[in-house]
Amino acid sequence: MLELELWGKSLGQVVLITLMCVARCASMVFLYQARQQLSRGVLGTLTGVALAVWGFQDGIFRRDDEWLVSHFYYGLTAALLMVFSLAIVPEIYQKRSHRRRKTHTVLSCIALLLFLPQGVTGSRDLWEIPLIWQK
Length: 135
Prior knowledge:
The chain is mainly alpha-helical. The protein folds into two domains: 1-60; 63-135. It contains six helices and no strands. α2 (11-33) packs antiparallel against α3 (37-55) and α3 packs antiparallel against α4 (71-87).
């Protein structure tokens, strides 16, 4: 925001970014505390949408042309899987069916597998993005 000087050029975008950050944090807190299945679904969806909208703003470094090896897309997918996994946690303990438990375990394993290339792509992207004082 500082580099693009959005404060003076596009105050609406600054307000949108700030509101999305607040909405994402609030919906995540409420999702963690929610007990009913419908409210967990709505709050999980709201958290995921706010996370995606917030991530696709201008100024976020992502490789749109190389999305298969992009740190941003690995992280966004892992975060969305973890939000969905958090939304079904109460179902695991309320019902004795192992279907939700297996779903939770599979989603957590997929998120773990996404974190491995994210470590590699994160290091690569940090080497490619020039620091402010090096420009």
